[in-house]
Design a protein that fits this description.
- By secondary structure, this protein is of the alpha+beta class.
- The two termini are about 25 Å apart.
- It is globular, with a radius of gyration of 15 Å.
- The chain is built from four helices and seven strands, in the order E-H-H-E-E-E-H-E-H-E-E.
- It has one domain: Aminopeptidase, CATH 3.40.630.30.
- Keywords: Transferase.
- GO terms for molecular function: acyltransferase activity, transferring groups other than amino-acyl groups.
- InterPro entries: Acyl_CoA_acyltransferase, GNAT_dom, MshD_Acetyltransferase.
- It comes from Paludibacter propionicigenes (strain DSM 17365 / JCM 13257 / WB4).
- This is GCN5-related N-acetyltransferase.
Length: about 160
Amino acid sequence: MISMDISFISSSDDLSAIVQVLNVSHGTVARDFGFTRQNNPTNNAFIDESTLRTQLLKGIDLYAISTNGQLIGCIAIEKSAREIDGFYIEKVSVVPEFRNQGVGVKLMDFAVTKIKESGGKSVSVALIDSNTKLKKWYSAQGFKETETKDFEHLPFRVCFMNKQL
């Protein structure tokens, strides 16, 4: 197991490296599913520093994971506006060369611990419904599919999964 450090990213930080991680890690999914800036402009494969900074200022908490000083992934936590003790996990990202080494699971465990410490009782994720590999990965971590939904601005059906804490 490689040694990894997780750190908080604030809106005042230089976001260029984290944007690169988001672009690269989500870029593989964008290619697999045929997403472009034109048909899916809000995808993290196409996020820029200004958009990410705005999201941080609106209240998402972003954490980066690194090994030997190299940024290799990130994860974001957002408090639900609708559920008193509900949270969302977003931007789960691991650069391709560090996948399948436990980095994503470490990020998820970290986020769930943070959510529990904040009084969270449930956590939800949203993903591409046809991404069966990712669904299985979330299921293995205790998430259960709750619904699927089509959104006019997205070129795919969204699957929502939830885990009670």
